[in-house]
């Protein structure tokens, strides 16, 4: 199918806390993006196990496609195609009939906490990294499979589909595994862009469980007749493989000029790094806990996963539960007036991974390290944002050092681009200008891959980014203040990590996108 200028493309973008369907149009050298439906993504704990409500997500997708059809209009000028991206690592299991076997388990479930140690007895961490280039995180698909392998569900499974591929399968009836989301599993070799037989063989993983690999821009089927009837769309409507890992789509949507930039894709997680043409698989890179995930157009996303705005989200949830709810804008204004760098914590610490009691855990981390304990919500929020900015700084600096790629600008995209205080603190911490926006970078990247596949736009990744740049309003933040104070704060965090020893090092492996 070849779409004309002005055609509408539906981007399904599933995040760890909410999902949305966006409608994008490309016309006259610019791009318009409209949110047509948003829905919550709330995990459910059942009999002690934390699950994704994947059927609820699918319901939200169908409702969103119906809204997209209404917004786009009927007939040839309607929805030209659909693309799907989501968070990484999680999956659904299918039986021999192609039916889902139970709700997918959430990556924050505690079942995987000991798996890196257990897997390391069979395949040492340095060897695993040399094959896959993926940072060692308990929530990786590899460790989830190790935790699940003795379960009846896993023994009954005939196929495994990662979350965006599962949604695509339900929409089209066609199964495939998109490369960028596959690269989050810790089973893919980033050099060959194929599964690693060495890793799978050592750990007894049957690669036959995975559907055939496909790349961004490949055809992924067309909406089934029952889906067309459910959504009111007029067929045929193709589904196009995009950067199915939401960070891959977000990085494709970074409005950068030239290549000397770092990106920070912010939301529940922060993913900070640089874009490369080949992976960095050195032992030094492994020790620094950097990951090599695949991107659009053969790129490599060399980055570190950081806990992200999850820390603040959990604080807000805790305060509401305690009966002291906080209004976010007022809280951020108060945090901006609180003393900077009074207390900082390791935003990659294991103590912050699971939900519940976040303000108390932050206070305990400050107390343990001999720093002042935040006295109120504003000081806790300032501690969180200072700590995130510090983690962004360390990731950007280390990415440059380990990859040899120099950075002149830092682009913040995703939900954190709305947070002016976080953006300014990141500029101050890095000593580099920060460009904030777009918030919906993943949807922009998703739509642009669809539009290029349909023939509505042409050109390589820089040309797609130029289209984003011409279409969005961006905010610039220049570094201010005494940069040496950030050096001293970084040293405090490192001393705390050294004092806690191996336990803290394990904690630094506990972040993911």
Brief summary:
The protein is an alpha+beta fold and 513 residues long. The chain is 40% helix and 20% strand.
What can you tell me about this protein's structure?
By secondary structure, the chain is of the alpha+beta class. It has 3 domains: 8-246, Nucleotidyltransferase, domain 5, CATH 3.30.420.40; 247-308 and 391-477, Nucleotidyltransferase, domain 5, CATH 3.30.420.40; 310-387 and 484-507, Nucleotidyltransferase, domain 5, CATH 3.30.420.40. The longest helix is centred in the C-terminal third of the chain and has 27 residues, at 377-403. The model is unreliable at 501-513 (pLDDT under 50). The two termini are 33 Å apart. It is globular and about 60 Å long. The strands form 7 sheets. A 7-stranded mixed β-sheet has the order 17-18-16-15-19-20-21, with helices on both faces. It is built from 20 helices and 21 strands.
């Amino acid at each position: 199918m070849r779409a004309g200028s002005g055609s509408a493309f539906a981007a399904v973008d599933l995040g760890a806390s909410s999902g949305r369907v966006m409608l994008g149009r490309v016309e006259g050298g610019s791009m318009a993006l409209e949110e047509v439906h948003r829905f919550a993504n709330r995990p459910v704990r059942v009999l002690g196990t934390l699950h994704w409500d994947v059927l609820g997500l699918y319901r939200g997708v169908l409702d969103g496609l119906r809204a997209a059809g209404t917004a786009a209009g009927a007939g040839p000028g309607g929805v030209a195609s659909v693309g799907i991206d989501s968070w990484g690592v999680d999956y659904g299991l299918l039986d021999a009939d192609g039916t889902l076997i139970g709700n997918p388990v959430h990556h924050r479930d505690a079942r995987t906490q000991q798996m890196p140690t257990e897997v390391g007895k069979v395949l040492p961490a340095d060897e695993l990294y040399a094959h896959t280039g993926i940072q060692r995180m308990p929530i990786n698909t590899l460790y989830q499979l190790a935790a699940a392998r003795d379960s009846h569900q896993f023994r009954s499974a005939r196929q495994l589909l990662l979350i965006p591929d599962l949604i695509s399968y339900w929409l089209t009836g066609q199964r495939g595994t998109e490369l960028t989301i596959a690269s989050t599993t810790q089973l893919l070799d980033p050099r060959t862009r194929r599964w690693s037989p060495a890793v799978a063989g050592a750990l007894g993983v049957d690669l036959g469980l995975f559907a055939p690999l496909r790349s961004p821009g490949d055809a992924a089927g067309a909406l089934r007749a029952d889906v067309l009837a459910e959504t009111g769309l007029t067929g045929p409507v193709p589904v196009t493989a995009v950067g199915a890992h939401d960070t891959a789509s977000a990085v494709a949507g970074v409005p950068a000029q030239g290549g000397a930039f770092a990106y920070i894709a912010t939301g529940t997680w922060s993913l900070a790094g640089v874009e490369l043409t080949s992976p960095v698989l050195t032992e030094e890179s492994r020790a620094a806990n950097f990951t090599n995930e695949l991107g659009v157009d053969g790129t490599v996303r060399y980055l570190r996963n950081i806990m992200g705005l999850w820390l603040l989200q959990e604080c807000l949830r805790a305060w509401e539960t305690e009966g002291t709810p906080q209004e976010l804008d007022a809280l951020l204004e108060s945090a901006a007036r609180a003393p900077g760098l009074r207390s900082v914590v390791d935003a990659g610490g294991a103590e912050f991974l699971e939900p519940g009691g976040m303000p108390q855990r932050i206070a305990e981390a400050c107390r343990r390290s001999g720093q002042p304990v935040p006295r109120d919500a504003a000081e806790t929020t300032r501690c969180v944002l200072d700590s995130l900015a510090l983690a962004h700084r360390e990731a950007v600096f280390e990415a440059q050092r380990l990859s040899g790629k120099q950075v002149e600008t830092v682009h913040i995209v995703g939900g954190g681009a709305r947070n002016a205080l976080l953006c300014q603190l990141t500029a101050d911490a890095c000593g580099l200008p920060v460009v904030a926006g777009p918030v919906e970078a993943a949807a922009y990247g998703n739509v642009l891959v669809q539009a290029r596949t349909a023939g509505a736009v042409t050109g390589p990744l820089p040309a797609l980014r130029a289209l984003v740049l011409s279409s969005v309003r961006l905010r610039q933040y220049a570094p201010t203040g005494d940069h040496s104070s950030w050096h001293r704060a970084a040293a405090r965090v490192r001393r705390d990590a050294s004092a806690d020893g191996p336990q803290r090092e394990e904690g630094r492996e506990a972040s993911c996108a």
